[in-house]
Amino acid sequence: MKESPGVVDLLGVLAYAELSAYARMTEDAVTLAPSLGDRAALSELAVTEYAHFRLLRDRLADLGADPDEAMSPFVEALDAWHTLTRPSDWLQALVKTYVGDGIALDFYREAARHLDPSIAELVDEVLVDEGRSQFAVERVRAGIEAEPAAAARLALWARRLVGEALSQGQQVASVRPELARLLVESGPADISRLFATLQEAHGKRMAAMGL
Amino acid sequence: MKESPGVVDLLGVLAYAELSAYARMTEDAVTLAPSLGDRAALSELAVTEYAHFRLLRDRLADLGADPDEAMSPFVEALDAWHTLTRPSDWLQALVKTYVGDGIALDFYREAARHLDPSIAELVDEVLVDEGRSQFAVERVRAGIEAEPAAAARLALWARRLVGEALSQGQQVASVRPELARLLVESGPADISRLFATLQEAHGKRMAAMGL
User: Fold this and answer.
1) Count of domains forming chain A
2) Predicted-assembly ipTM surpassing the 0.90 threshold
3) Residues 42-71 (A) with a CB less than 8 A from some CB of B
4) Domain that holds residue B68
5) How far is Cα A202 from Cα B124, in angstroms, rounded to an integer?
6) What pLDDT does residue A1 have?
7) What b/e sequence results for A40-54 when a residue is b if at least 16 CB atoms lie within 10 Å of its CB, and e otherwise?
8) Residues of B in contact with A51 (CB under 8 A)
């Protein structure tokens, strides 16, 4: 089957992003959730990530790619991202779920824009926000209301998440040029538009949380 | 709604058993799986446990019980079970999934025998073996074939799992007499039958793995 050269890379990085997000959110739910109800609520989001992983893995197999091989180039950078951004409390975990994963997902969505519609549709499907935002936003807002001093601390945390995301993203782009090319197919104008889009989406998320 | 007094306890312990098994299997998959394929395979089983948790939680809510309250009495014993039986390699993790969870599930199934059919059906549904056995059995057998010395070590590990399961089970029974009563409703003859059933099922699992 004829596909853009970056397609397997894109589905591979996305598949491992979902597989690792599922595991980290599950761990955060166990170690940081203040109640069994909150633990279940974050676990619910984690399991949705796993379902997305399954779709991506199956599509990779349909394309004739080995899913494990497609994911391997991205294991190190994504694991590093999670290690460098391990939340130390429940609100940090929620901000990470919303802001950190949010910016990553914006990248993936941009990368899929120029691809075959069936791939773009799949990417849209796995990136759909199934209540994740509402869940995180509501609880972070309530947390800040209960403890206003938390806002500054969480804003700093969000900035760190973005910094680490960009840094790991850059590393991925440098080793997988085909993938990077998906993001900037039409040259410099596209780069400006990309950064404007990402910045706008990030700003909206911060505002929604009251940060 | 009129229910046997142990029903909420049974669904509560089972719900937390599934919620915690999901989290621990997810963690074992990340830390111990030898390949991304194995990691995904164990994660698949973990996510199935989560789906079962969801069914149990919803049934508790339908019965008018607070799912968090129903689960809380069992958090300590089940967390202790997981802490005391943390696998240190991939084969131990698989044996735990199969043998450890297996014996716990036998207990739950026995406890549900005398209950309202709709509860017994739900318990059967969440305890169904969806490929868990085949997955663990195949890989443990292959592991022993590759390294015959592993068999004795894993047999010892399985014995420890059973010992810890019985010990935690006893603790649960002592604090939740209603739940214990579900297991031995008809007196001593029932106890003998129960232990014979559990022993037989455990023996079959050990034999299946070649232990």
Assistant:
1) 1
2) no
3) 43-44, 46-47, 50-51, 53-54, 57, 67-68, 71
4) 7-209
5) 46
6) 47
7) bbbbbbbbbbbebbb
8) 47
